Amino acid sequence: MSTVLGDRALNRATLARQLLADRSTRPARDVIDHLVGLQAQEPLEPYVGLWSRMAGFAPAELVGLMESREVVRTHLQRRTIHLLTADDCLALRSLFQPMLVQRMYGTLKRALPGVDLDELTAAGRPHFHAEPLRLPDVARRVAERWPEVKVRDLGDALSSLVELVQVPPRGMWGQGNAPAASTTIEAWLGRAPDPSPADASELVLRYLRAYGPATSADVRSWSGLSGLPAAIKELRPQLRTFRDERGRELLDVADRPLPDPDTPAPPRFLPAFDNAVLGYDDRTRIIDAEHRNLSIAGARLLLVDGRVSATWTSSDDGITVAPLRPLTPVEQAEVEAEGVALAAFLADGTPGKVRFE
Prior knowledge:
The chain has 15 helices and 14 strands. It is of the alpha+beta class.
């Protein structure tokens, strides 16, 4: 019989693997590599994600990585924008490309009558390769070939068909409203993505190191990839397995510890769409089922005792916390201390207050 891991045990494992139990002293590039990217469709949210995971993180570190092109913004997992190392962008894009096109076409098929996807790719790519441009601008340049198709839909299709990265100032600290201009991965990084798809087995191992123990459905939900059963079958001899409280099989690597379920968990402020929550099919290890929709609605979530217990917003003078359950006086004091530090981070050192709704 497999050992049963309760939700609290899974919660503490998740916090440890996600670097949310103890802040990491590793550099930002290594943290981004460990997490296989941070979801980043809200351009400045990764800064909060790194601040909550790293000791002494400063925005200039991530800015430097983006300026030096060691870290890039591109579509990958689930066809969402992720902040990835350049190495992962080059290595993983071919593995994810069929899923990106499939998801795009599943959404836009009716909006693209008469559009040959190869022809659209060939028409749009040279424009992006020559210089960073906005998706609608390139769509307008090629729109005369498909006059019955909306420019918006052509641009959306191009975002998956052409292997693109969003370039600075998009995603740069203090540039929240910068336009999303894109160029080809090849133009930005000096070489095209590796043509051979990366080893899916290695991707599964990296997921388990940063998110495990987890079910095969969790891996699929995080990645958006459907062709992983063969990779998991290949890996089985080197994996350990557990069961969750609902009887489902949990997969895990053998070289990662499982913290004691009673390990204290400090409060952590999560950015919108953080993969610590979104990276699972079953998210009950970290968020109650009745609050699940918050994780896909773009709410910023606050972990208290390891679980989503509040949402939060920021303004010029500080942080506002909206509890989802009553907080004890001790919890409230801990949240306030963490929130004051976050408010100062967001305001480049200017002190701020924490308010509780």
